[in-house]
Amino acid sequence: MSIRCRRRGFTLIELLVVIAIIAILIGLLLPAVQKVREAAARIKCLNNLKQIGLGLHNYHAAYGHFPPGFAANTAPATALRESDYTPGWSLFYHVLPYIEQDNLHRSIDPSLPILHPANKAGRETVVPLYVCPSDDAPRLINLTDSGATTWTPPNTFTYPPPDSPLAVLGQASVSSYAGCLGTLGYEEQPYTGVFHRNSRVRVEDITDGSSSTVGVGERTSRFSANSWVGPAWQQETVYAPSAPRYDPARPSFRCRATPTAVLVHVRITSLQPNHPENSPGSFFSSHSGGAQFLNMDGSGRFISSSVSVANYRALCSRNGGEVLAGDY
Q1: I need a surface site. Which of 107, 239, 248, 316 has the fewest CB within 10 A?
Q2: Total-model pTM
Q3: What are the pLDDT digits (tens) for 48-59?
Q4: Per residue in 61-85, pLDDT tens?
Q5: Which of 246, 250, 281, 287 is nearest to 264 (CA)?
Q6: Dist. CA 123–CA 182, nearest whole Å
């Protein structure tokens, strides 16, 4: 007699059940993995800001003041002039030797404008510390001109029409961060933030307390693409294609003035971090629920998108004497 051994395989129904179970498990696992990755990205982003803060304080120790928001040859008069923004190198350029980027700093001639051919290699160099891990847009961006911008003191700007095409002035490496101009307009004096045109703010000038004053905040290039190098003459800040209010038929819609290439102000009409109605010159992060900021004592804070505008503005002012409530 022969003994037959029967080998039984999966039926089609059993196979489909197994596939369905695996799909459910993957569906449950992926959000958890994404949350872990985002948490790690937030930690790295906050560490970037703290390292920038350390660089700023080392600069202060060397020079007796923090670096300028950006360097210009002359103060503004009654009209915008090229010298108002030239050479233009920003606070992020000035702290390069203090964040282990001395070779890059030496490769740039700060007496020449940002867009000078001699500075092409320098301005196109990616500085990892200036890029949030969640900001996954292109690392090399276009610096663009939306058209003629006029300025009437103390703070009235007339911008190009929304449908004005963008002229590419040159390219530069991206930054996920911007300095804080304060709570007044781009050219209004006396400015209330830590960084401004040719500013030389000292620790003792931060009378609201360095732990309660924002110096640098997030502005992801997925919202508006800007560089660490500083403002270039004729440059405007515009929405990125991934921004909530981007309109390809109106590429210059709500474009902001040249200083916003590296500086952000929070006026009384401003909205909270990550608000979809914000202008391209606002603080805006790649993280949900708010944005990361550097305090001028070197610590970091996450400011919620639900913060009151009064508190938000108070944190962005160095000398306003405001009393902070507990909703940030």
Answers
A1: 248
A2: 0.89
A3: 999 999 999 999
A4: 999 999 999 999 986 666 788 899 9
A5: 281
A6: 26
